[in-house]
Amino acid sequence: MSGNFLFQRIDNSQIVVWRIFFGILMLAEGWGSIATGWVKETFVDAEFTFSFIGFEWTHFLLGETMYYVYVVLGLLGLMIALGAFYKVSSFLFAVGWSLVYFMQKEHYNNHYYLIMLVAWFMVFIPANRYKSIDVLIWPKIRTNITFYWTRLIFILQLFIVYTFAALAKLYPGWLNGDFLMLRYKGLGHWVDKTIEWQPLTDFVYSREFAQIISWTGFWFDLLIVPLLLWKKTRIPAILAALVFHLINSFTLHIGIFPYFALAISIFFFPPETIQRLFFRKKTSYQPDSYNFQPSYSNRGLFSFVFVVYFLWQIYLPLRHWMIPGDVLWTEEGHRLSWRMMLRTKSGAAMFTVKDKNSGEIFPVNLYDEMTPLQASRIATHPDMIWQFAQRLKKKYAAEGKQVSVHANVQISINGSRYYQQIDPSVDLAMVKWKYFGHQEWLLESPVDFSSFSQSEAEKN
After folding, report:
1. How far, in Å, CA of 180 to CA of 174, rounded?
2. Which of 176, 179, 301, 374 falls 20 to 30 Å from 448 in CA-CA distance?
3. Three-state DSSP class for 292?
4. How far is CA 255 from the centre of its chain?
5. What are the DSSP E strand ranges found in 273-402?
């Protein structure tokens, strides 16, 4: 039953247009990352990166090699847009993007994660069978049709992204405006200097403004997919999405994601609508004229994998409920969960290294050991703290010393007071990382961050 549903034949204009949009955006992302200095800051200047745990082996690529990696990623994006050697170019892009995604967490971004997932979708979607260089080289592959799953996979993925992004906002720091009051300070400063109208400046700085934007963001994330799916609300919804994403682009500076999200919304329109908008001369798919179909020898197995993938996508954002502690405090279950733009964290970390034999204590200056960006991130991410402790252990082991590593870390969330996060008596060099559980060396979180952040944010 599910196999028949997933393999219904539809016009393939959507996946063809998306292929072009996706490729152009990846070209811009790949080469733009070099032009803006992002690659230099993240991969070239760094002696190491805080990779996903288990991907430390990727450090051999660090340095100027990463310029070539991103040049190739941009070039592969162009090849995808043109539909040139599509199977190879989409596969190499998915592998390359996955590699650079898992290489670093200093710039962790849910949008990069979404790109990785979509890149792997593209490997299996026959998006090169119309308006592509591949069709010019191999005319026999040309077709006007695809299967319904190639559209459904994008709709379901976006539904998961937006729904869990909305649910993650249901905590006091978002709903009472703590986070956005801090985030929009720069916007208030811009209004003050540019427009020079005090009532507007005061409003942008106010908690009321932050709460309006907070609740608007929540309801947008919760309702945008259902509204796009319903024909009567689709046009107002797409206009609202346009305004929402452009505002985010200019105020939050979140890269290509607003344009990525707008482009992917083509899947909420009927395939025939996209065909009329972009390929007026193209003959729409007619059942009687069907000649070609992508080969799936085992539709049952494909349907099973399809369902399992989306069950996994539902599990990942929920897994933090199975781990003790507040995810805002521990960060356990935060990544891969669509917890986007939720909080501002700041912290201070001091590491102590002690020789177990001589008792000698070695000073640790973070700025001597890592880049300024890494030093600014480490205090608010327990997994980075643990990884750095392991790095210090190996560094001194290479000098013939057995050392203990302790960390004194305090963090603030959404402008709250600073709280001790890690048990300073624990030797982090000796503890093992629990991939799917709770780190016992993390102290319990405060009961309520917002009770402190409201008054302190307003003072500032």
Report:
1. 7
2. 374
3. coil
4. 11
5. 345-355, 361-362
Look at residue 350 and give its three-state secondary structure. Answer: strand
Strand partners, 333: none
Query: pTM here?
Result: 0.91
Torsion sign (Cα): 374, 376, 382, 388: positive
How much is the average pLDDT of 157-182? 92
In order, the DSSP letters of 205-233 are: HSHHHHHHHHHHHHHHHHHHHHHHHSHHH
Question: Could you tell me the two tokens for 119?
Answer: 């890149």
Query: pLDDT for 329-350, tens place per residue?
Result: 999 999 999 998 888 899 999 9
Residue closest to 106 by CA, chosen among 370, 431, 395, 408 = 370
Task: Tell me the β-bridge partners of 350.
Answer: 408
How would you label 114-125 residue by residue, b for 16+ Cβ within 10 Å and e otherwise?
A: bbbbbbbbbebb
Structure tokens at 440: 């016992």
DSSP character at residue 57: G
Q: Torsion over CA of 218, 110, 343 and 256, rounded to 10 degrees? A: -80
Q: Determine phi and psi for 422, rounding to 5 degrees.
A: -120, 140
Tokens of residue 3, six digits? 């196999």
Q: What is the pLDDT of residues 49-71, one digit of tens each?
A: 999 999 999 999 999 999 999 99
- Residues across the chain: 460
Please state, in angstroms and rounded to a whole number, the distance separating the CA atoms of residues 39 and 63: 9
